[in-house]
Each structure stands twice: as structure tokens, then as C-alpha cells.
Amino acid sequence: MKITVLGYYGGYPDKGIGTSGYLIQSGNYNLLLDCGSGVLLELEKVLNPLQLDAVLLSHYHSDHIADVGVLQHYWQLAPGQKKEVVLPIYGHNKDEENFKKLDWFDCTKGYQYNPDETLKLGPLHITFKLTKHPVVAYAMRIYDENSKKTLVYTADTRYFDELISFCKDADMLITDTNFYNDKEGTKWHMTSDETGYLAKKANVKKVLISHLPQYGSLDDLLKQTKDAAGDSVDILLPKVRQEILLNN
Ligand SMILES: [Zn+2]
Ligand SMILES: [Zn+2]
């Protein structure tokens, strides 16, 4: 399994870098996981977008879906051979208005995932966990039958204990670490401390802290996360178009 980071800021793009989007590849299968602002531009640098097999969305906040519309235009207008004539976009239907927008003429079609069942997309087996967020959002546990590796993506969520079992023993964890450890008041995302604690308790091997804040020092965010996680976990700050390989 290869993971390519296409954007990693929370809320809005900054310094030329977009919001959430990850290209997940296994064998010749190409999945776009979330499709935030700036993601299509970065995707074009690493893969002809027409070679996508599917798009999978955690929730309908703009920083996760801002580029869905332009991707639909891409499918409609861009020249070239499409891998899928109609691009499937998987999302939940707990927000009917946004779910309906996944259909775009005969170019893209929305498919509802059932969070209580495993969704199989090519070699990827995906299970879901409802997160704690102001809108319905799902964390995803993605098992790749080619590499036998497991990626967990928390999507957007505040910390809650059930995340530990959902992330248990993952080879790689991508977390919503939007806050430094001094964040006070209501939190709809995790702090550096909470990500570190989750990683340690869940015994994950590697963590990419993502959905990052635009302020402060990201090196501090990394250090705080590492301090909370301890030495057994490898914690990484994302870079745009960074590739992470999980192989057996
Ligand atoms: Zn977000
Ligand atoms: Zn959100």
C-alpha cells in the first residue's frame, strides 16, 4: 500500500498547501480518500486523475470535499481515457443534501456506505467508526489484502476512548491533530497529547499527524505528540506529496 499526502491543513489551505486528501494505492487500484481544497492540483502532479478508481469521503465539511466539484468537472471535460467511465464517490447519506451532490450527470455517481458493514474497494477492506464531531463523520480502518497492512484514518474527531480499539495495532495511523496541547474549551479535533496517548494505547507503529493548525510551530506539535506517545511509536509530520510505503 502506498499513501501519498495531497493536503494536510485543517479548515482551510495555507502557504500553498491544501486541506485533507490522501491518495491510497494498492496494486493498480487508486483511491482518493477525502478531497479537500487544493487536493486536485496535487493529485495531478502524481497521478492522472482519470486513473482514479474511486473517491471515499469521511464527511461533508468543506475542508474534506471542497475539490469534489472540480473533480466532477475534470471527469466531464478533461480529455483522455478514463479508468472508470462514471467515477464512484462513496459517502454517508446522513446528510442527504450533500450526498445528492455526489451525482454529477453521467460523470460521477454517489454511493452510500453502510458504516455497519465492511466496504470492499478493490483490494481494500474498509470498516467505519462514527466519530465525535459537529457533523456526522466516520473514521476508517483500511486493510489492504495485497500488503496485509492496515491504515487507520481518524478523519475529524475529538478524542474518545473507543478510538483506541478502532486503531488497535494499526501499521499506520493518520490523525486529526488540529490542536496544541494547551488548547482549552470545546474541542472537535484532537490535541497533540491526545494523538500521542491514542497512538501509545492502540499500539500503532507509525503516526502521521495531520489536519494541522496554520499557527504556531509544527515542530512543537510534533514534539508534544512524541512526548505523549513515547519511544515505541514513530511520529511523522506530513509533507505535501510525501509517499509512505507500507509493505509486507
Ligand atoms: Zn476537517
Ligand atoms: Zn470536519
Strand content: 25-35%
Structural category is alpha/beta
Biggest sheet character: 8 strands, mixed
Indicate the percent of residues in helices. 10-25%
What are the secondary-structure elements, in order, as H or E? EEEHEHHEHEEEEEHEEHEHEE
Shape: globular
What is the architecture at the second tier of CATH? 4-Layer Sandwich
Mean residue pLDDT: 98
Q: How many helices?
A: 7
Low-confidence stretches: none
| CATH homology superfamily | Ribonuclease Z/Hydroxyacylglutathione hydrolase-like
DSSP strand tally: 15
What is the CATH class? Alpha Beta
Enumerate the distinct ligands.
zinc ion
Rg from C-alpha positions?
17 Å
GO molecular function: 3'-tRNA processing endoribonuclease activity
Keywords: Hydrolase, Zinc
Protein name: MBL fold metallo-hydrolase
Domain Metallo-beta-lactamase: 18-211
Give a quick precis of the structure.
The chain starts with a strand and ends with a strand. The chain is globular, with a radius of gyration of 17 Å. It is an alpha/beta fold.
